[in-house]
Design a protein that fits this description.
By secondary structure, this protein is mainly α. About 65% of the residues lie in helices and about 0% in strands. It is globular, with a radius of gyration of 25 Å.
Length: about 475
């Protein structure tokens, strides 16, 4: 039995020649320098805080250059924005994959990623990306080679296109379209074509079943999702997401989710239907690894397999961002923006306004919180059957969304914002939202205080009576 644990004595070493030898030599030297550093326990802290400092410095430099002569050329501004957007799109899936593994570990009373890179396995996602890039790209013999290869790019391209019209702030948008909401929903809806293409081209019954589930589920849930988004559009009177965000800059009580009880319910309906749109649990039947091996991407490997997950996690950010813009105050903080305007136009005043009152940091933070809720739900709720998925859409979500739309129409007609009924409703809903936030903070603080105290043998410090 020693042959299973004793290393090979005469294992041949690989020999490289030419350009391969140069690459191997550079990689070996980089490893000899970087390995002792990344194994340092506190290495991740300067990386994370250094990245944040560089991002803040870059924003400040861009603000200075915006007054410069060079950025008056539209092509230079577009190249700068495209570069930043592409970097953000690449960062979101890499971070969310690592984050989901950590969330899953905590929910299941384990640590999750802890090894690769040192501090909480922060380098696991980059390592997996390198593995996918270098892994062999296989195409089944019976598959349609052209459609099989095109499907991953068809999945990622619409999601990337949606970022074109997605505003991160009042002035932080690549193209400020008058119909930006319709454009983003159209881009998200085009992803179903890629899923069907991947399932059909793979020539496998598992992939075809996964693609059929995706077609039924996504097309069905887009209807109540779109109807629920009509309520904030009706309230503001615009399809431009920048206008919708700017209409909520008077403080947290002016956020649309607190404007009427029907908008409050519509936010919940939209979020539930967005889970089905992103194929997230409990609506993750298109993948269904317990039934369909891997669903529509069963036959994919390497980088093409990774592109499907890039599209999924980027889509999670987009649907969360839409919820933030249309219901939860967009890029505005709970404080009125008018308070920050009294500070003046100095650079320090602009920095304070961008951090305290409104700016992309608030928008990204809110969006990532809603992504966290998606991760939380995945590792909490079981997967439901396909008939239950369609029942929940056709006989629950669709009627509820239609009733909310009709009721909100009469609400706007009978109770304008300055009416007593509307004002009282706004105050009550705002207090309910504040109570929910305060309760969540208390629960999180208590959980953090007892983070080392669990029931059972996994506990470090036992709870009283356990």
């Amino acid at each position: 039995m020693t042959q299973f644990w004793t290393p090979w004595e005469g294992r041949p070493k690989p020999e490289y020649t030419g350009f391969s030898a140069v690459v191997a030599g550079v990689a070996q030297r980089l490893y000899s320098v970087a390995a002792p550093i990344v194994r340092w326990r506190w290495f991740a802290f300067p990386i994370f805080f250094g990245t944040a400092a560089v991002a803040v410095l870059a924003v400040w430099i861009i603000a200075l250059l915006s007054k410069a002569y060079l950025l008056e050329y539209p092509i230079l501004r577009d190249l700068l924005v495209v570069t930043g957007t592409a970097g953000f799109i690449a960062f979101v899936p890499v971070f969310c994959i690592w984050w989901e593994r950590k969330v899953a570990g905590r929910i299941q009373s384990r640590c999750g990623l802890m090894r690769v890179g040192g501090w909480h396995g922060w380098a696991q996602s980059p390592a997996d990306g390198i593995k996918c890039v270098t892994k062999e790209d296989l195409v089944p013999d019976d598959a349609d080679p052209i459609l099989f290869r095109l499907a991953p790019y068809f999945a990622l391209t619409p999601v990337v296109g949606a970022f074109v019209a997605l505003p991160f702030g009042a002035y932080w948008v690549f193209r400020d379209l008058e119909v930006s909401l319709i454009f983003i929903l159209a881009m998200l809806g085009a992803e179903v074509v890629a899923i069907i293409m991947a399932g059909w081209a793979s020539a496998s019954k598992w992939t075809v079943l996964g693609a059929m589930r995706e077609a039924c589920q996504m097309v069905s849930y887009e209807i109540p999702m779109g109807i629920s988004l009509l309520l904030p559009v009706m309230t503001v009177g615009a399809l431009n997401l920048t206008d919708v965000g700017n209409a909520q800059d008077g403080g947290w009580h002016t956020w649309l989710v607190f404007r009427s009880p029907f908008l409050f319910a519509a936010a919940l309906v939209y979020y539930i239907t967005s889970l089905a749109s992103c194929k997230r649990a409990p609506f993750d039947l298109p993948e269904g690894e317990s039934e369909l091996v891997g669903g529509y991407h069963t036959e994919y490997s390497g980088m093409r397999w990774a592109l499907f997950f890039f599209a999924e996690y980027a889509g999670m950010f987009i649907v969360s961002a839409l919820a933030v813009i249309l219901f939860f105050g967009a890029w505005n903080s709970p404080l009125p923006v008018s308070w920050g305007e009294s500070l003046g136009d100095a650079y320090w005043a602009q920095a304070v306004r961008g951090v305290v009152f409104c700016g992309p940091l608030w928008f990204i933070g809110k969006s990532f919180f809603l992504i966290y809720v998606q991760l939380w739900l995945r590792w909490t709720l079981p997967r439901i059957r396909i008939d239950q998925v369609l029942y929940a859409c056709v006989q629950v979500m669709l009627p509820v969304a239609m009733v909310l739309l009709l009721a909100h129409t009469f609400w706007e007609l009978w109770f304008p914002p300055e009416s007593i009924v509307s004002t009282v409703s706004n105050i009550v809903l705002s207090l309910v939202g504040a109570a929910i936030v305060v309760g969540a903070v208390i629960v999180i603080a208590k959980a953090r205080l007892h983070a080392r105290r669990l029931v059972g043998y996994l506990a470090i410090d036992l709870l009283p009576g356990s």
